[in-house]
Amino acid sequence: MDYHETVDVKSLSVHYHGNLALKNVSFTVNKGSIVGVIGPNGAGKSTLMKAMLGLERCKGTVSFFGEKVKDIRKNIAYVPQRSSIDWDFPVLVKDVVLMGRFMHIPWYKIASKKDKERAFEALRMVGMEEFANRQIGELSGGQQQRVFIARSLSQDADLFFLDEPFVGIDVKSEEIIVDILHTLKQEGKTIFVIHHDLSKVEKYFDQLVLLNQELIHAGEVKDVYRTDLIKKAYHGSASLMKEGQELVVVNP
Amino acid sequence: MIDNITLFIDQLMRYPYLQNAMAAAVLVGVICGVIGCYIILRGMALMGDAISHAVLPGVVIAYMIGASFFIGAVITGVLTALAIGYISQNSRIKEDSAIGIMFTAMFALGIVMITGLQGTSVDLWHILFGNVLAVSKVDLWITLGIGIFVLIAVIIFYRPLLLSTFDETMAKSSGLPVKFIHYMLMLLLSLVTVASLQTVGIVLVVAMLITPGATAYLLTDRFPVMLILSALIGVISAVAGLFFSVIYDVASGASIVLVASVLFILALFFSPKQGIIPKLFRKPVYDS
Ligand SMILES: Nc1ncnc2c1ncn2[C@@H]1O[C@H](COP(=O)(O)OP(=O)(O)OP(=O)(O)O)[C@@H](O)[C@H]1O
Ligand SMILES: [Mg+2]
């Protein structure tokens, strides 16, 4: 495939104070797919995302549709791990969603009516419009996650990076988010999702990046989601059971 | 009380030095209140304390060579912030320890310089605890200049400051120079500290930074409202504190800080949403 149609990661390595967190990772994913990044705790999933976004000092190259990350920043929406947010911060739900518009507003202007409408529309897409005036701490985990998804939608980006969006959220929120991801994919957006729960991998993703410091394997779900590879990634920290076609990883 | 107020107003009309003091105190209330909001939300209260103490050697050197002490203070303030950043990023020492080391070192250096310079006109007491009644016209202009600069910076960079305070990773990934913003804020903090030197003094500046902001934080869920409330509370503290200081003839800086503290206590207990007492009487709310 043409490199204008792919995200290419080549020999990416990251270390923290001399400790290797990511070793020589290379893979290619196609535009318009939902990519699951999976691996055990401390495998370097968040590190991979940060390195791809150019937020962590790293060796190697990353190209998004033939361009460097610094040239397409406005086009990248990032949804943080929920634990990294201060939920007592004095912002309302609608203020958070509007932040997705910030990079499109020139510094000398204030947020226009159009920006606010776009933010509200995004809020409606995740079914959170009636909570627009709530302080963000006064929501359930799933609702909070939907608000941050709405923020990324309001940004009108082409690339999405979500760090563990499904952790600690309710079934309804999970369904809404998965639906939105599929809609985005239909629109040709490329979405990276860090994910823990292996049981739903086949339902959610088109491609997988399986990590444990090194790349174990990357590619179509059916080529990566295999007992031997999962076992290799999760070492002894997981036992595997075959349930029909489904793999279940049980963390001890 | 009414008598005291008319007496205070009467004196205010009559004495230019008191007018200067009032204007300086109001300005300091506003800019400390505004910058304080960022300090609180970024969890940098200790940093605020550090920078304010660390300007001491800069002030002393400026006196020695006859330069404006505003410049000396800003230079040492920013240098200290850079040194703290350098230590915490390049060693295993965590930021709070780095702050503790740097600011006591700078403060001690300032004290040694002052005590070694016996006989000069540097008045340690006034630098440490302020003397708002000695504010000159020139000081007032400089304070006004700093105030305008700080407010313009906060207005122009409102969105970058908000985003980098709320969600640093998104700020970085959207291309904001997060480190630069941090050091800009340290520069503003040094400026604010210097502007507050004469009003409340080095030791108590941190109270003017933290207390009004914390009070406002208890009263609202919206950041812009917090900024305005905090500035307002800063001004109320400044005016009321100056009033008590003149009427009862006590130290101005300390009485301003005490008023701010009392306002904080009131908000802590009686704030409609966050207050401890309203919370006691609130029925549990069950979300649908
Ligand atoms: N800022 C940092 N400084 C030092 N070490 C770090 C830092 N961030 C991550 N690490 C280390 O790098 C390794 C990979 O961390 P990372 O956060 O990328 O893992 P992860 O796969 O996202 O894990 P989790 O599933 O727990 O989120 C871990 O061993 C972690 O301790
Ligand atoms: Mg992680």
Automatic annotation (TrEMBL), chain A:
<keyword id="KW-0067">ATP-binding</keyword>
<dbReference type="Pfam" id="PF00005">
    <property type="entry name" value="ABC_tran"/>
</dbReference>
<feature type="domain" description="ABC transporter">
    <location>
        <begin position="7"/>
        <end position="238"/>
    </location>
</feature>
<dbReference type="InterPro" id="IPR017871">
    <property type="entry name" value="ABC_transporter-like_CS"/>
</dbReference>
<dbReference type="InterPro" id="IPR003439">
    <property type="entry name" value="ABC_transporter-like_ATP-bd"/>
</dbReference>
<dbReference type="InterPro" id="IPR027417">
    <property type="entry name" value="P-loop_NTPase"/>
</dbReference>
<keyword id="KW-0547">Nucleotide-binding</keyword>
<dbReference type="InterPro" id="IPR050153">
    <property type="entry name" value="Metal_Ion_Import_ABC"/>
</dbReference>
<keyword id="KW-0813">Transport</keyword>
<protein>
    <submittedName>
        <fullName>Metal ABC transporter ATP-binding protein</fullName>
    </submittedName>
</protein>
<comment type="similarity">
    <text>Belongs to the ABC transporter superfamily.</text>
</comment>
<dbReference type="GO" id="GO:0005524">
    <property type="term" value="F:ATP binding"/>
</dbReference>
<dbReference type="InterPro" id="IPR003593">
    <property type="entry name" value="AAA+_ATPase"/>
</dbReference>
